[in-house]
Amino acid sequence: MKNKTLSLALFALLLLPSASWAEQVTIAVRGMVCSFCAQGIKRTLMQNENVKDIHVDLDKKLVRIETKDGTTISDEALRQAIIDSGFDVVSIARDNNG
């Protein structure tokens, strides 16, 4: 009986969500037209210690940011980084993977 209880407890732990999660944020940016624009935005956003990765889609005018596990970045901080790069924010959408 003890083995069955232990097995069930271990199985339940495996089903619990992990404490580490990354957040994906998609920012629609007005004014971004070339790879130089994208590099400027990336450079500014990478200054935030919570940014893990950035992908820029010039055709769709989107910047996708992945945060480091267990961290987040406020909309205001993201908006200010885009403005500091010389562009305007159209929208910010979040997808939490945790």
Verbal overview:
This protein has helices at residues 2-15, 35-45, 75-84; strands spanning 23-30, 51-57, 62-67, 88-96. It has 98 residues and is of the alpha+beta class. The chain has a single domain, classed as Alpha-Beta Plaits (2-Layer Sandwich). A 4-stranded antiparallel sheet has the order 2-3-1-4, covered by helices on one side. Strand 2 (51-57) and strand 3 (62-67) form a beta hairpin. 17% of the residues are buried.
Features:
single chain, 98 residues, Alpha-Beta Plaits, 4-stranded antiparallel β-sheet, 3 helices
**SS summary, helix count:** 3
Mean pLDDT, rounded to whole units? 86
Strand and helix order? HEHEEHE
Q: Give the second-level CATH assignment, the architecture.
A: 2-Layer Sandwich
Q: What share of the residues lie within helices?
A: 25-40%
- Structural class, by secondary structure, is alpha+beta
Q: Would you identify the regions where 5 or more consecutive residues have pLDDT less than 50? A: none
Enter the CATH topology name. Alpha-Beta Plaits
The count of strands amounts to 4
Tally of distinct domains: 1
